[in-house]
Each structure stands twice: as C-alpha cells, then as structure tokens.
Amino acid sequence: MEKIMNHPMIKHKISILRNEKTSTKEFRELVSEIAMLLCYEALSDAKTKKVKVKTPIAETEGLQVDENNYAFVPILRAGMGMVDGVLTLMPNAKIGHIGLYRNEETLEPVKYYCKLPSDIKNREVILLDPMLATGGSGSAAITMLKKDGVKKIKFLCIIAAPDGIKKIKEDHPDVDIYCAQLDDHLNDVGYIVPGLGDAGDRIYGTK
Ligand code: PRP
Ligand code: URA
Question: What would be the CATH architecture of the domain defined by 2-204?
C-alpha cells in the first residue's frame, strides 16, 4: 500500500523545500518537520495499552504506545535528516543505520554500512529516506532488514517518483509506503522531476 499525503500544510512545506533558494538551515528544518508529520500518519495504527493516570484532580484511564516495539532506520546520508523529526514523536525508539549510496553511472545502490539494534527482529521498523527515485536504495535496505529477521516495515519518504513506488511494491508488497509528494518522472540521470535536487547535498550543504 502507498499513502500519498494530501494535507495542505504538507504541500505548503514541500513548496518551500523544493525552492532552490531555500537555505540549508531551513531545508533541514523542513525535512525534519515533514518527517514528523509522515511518522504521525504511519503510527496511526500503533497498538496501545490502557494505563492509569492520576491528574491533580482525579484518577483516570489513558492509552500508552509501547515505544519498545519500534526502531527508526535512516538510509545514510539523507535519511539522517529525518531522524530528529520522528524522534520528537517517539523519543524512546531505537535507531539503526544503513549506509547506501547510488553509483552515479549505474544508479545501483552500493552498501557501505549497516548497524542495527540487536533486537531489531522484534521491532517494527520505520525506514527513512527523503527520496525514492528508482527505488534501488529503498528496496536494498528493506532486503537487508528482512535478512535480519524484521517482519514489519514502513517506508517514509518525502518525494517519490512513480518508478520508485512501483519497484518497492513489486519487490516488497508487504511494505507500506508513506509519501509526502508523488512527483512526475525521473530524468535521464535518475533525478526526480521536479523534485528538489540532491537531498543529501541540500541537507548538509555539500554542493
Ligand atoms: C539518495 C537518496 C536515496 C537515493 C534514492 O541518496 O537519499 O537514498 O538517492 O535513489 P534511488 O531510489 O534511485 O536508489 P544518495 O545515493 O544520493 O546518497 P546520499 O544520501 O549519501 O547523498
Ligand atoms: N536522490 C536525490 O537526492 N534526489 C533525487 O532526485 C534522486 C535521488
């Protein structure tokens, strides 16, 4: 399943994010805020348990989400830009890291790092990457998580191309995709059009 967000505030933030004149500072803040909003939506099915709460006035019953059921896994580098935002929502989730970069000629993902929480197979994983272009990196990261025994994965991306959504759905039909914006197509060097350029470079100011 893919869920493309339709909220005016998300569309508003995407428009600023896309603008080539947006500063590194503002770009970073927006990636974080949009990630939080995507995560809010992705966690709408979170299991809750009843807890007793004593307010200054009375005792009542509340609901609590078990944060130990979750891990956030950003795909380096650009996915790191989404971590602060999702942690504002669920500060006690564990965090793993998967390092992948795209070979600029073949567009194939190249793995260079993987460090996941030791109990990852018992957690639902929320995979983070702002850009879903060909889908090669996202699909490879999901395969790595499944090899480690992860059974439930949700993929949060800010901008996706139709090819990327298609690839994830074909390779991993069990993974739900939450996407802030579905764009038109990929150009001949694998960039999303209209997109926002290179997310990693814009987050870290490396170009
Ligand atoms: C970008 C992006 C994704 C990937 C998407 O990373 O953050 O990981 O490209 O492209 P795909 O869907 O075609 O695989 P990049 O390889 O530029 O690395 P970076 O985050 O280190 O800049
Ligand atoms: N990676 C990016 O950062 N941007 C794109 O448009 C495609 C892949």
Answer: 3-Layer(aba) Sandwich (3.40)
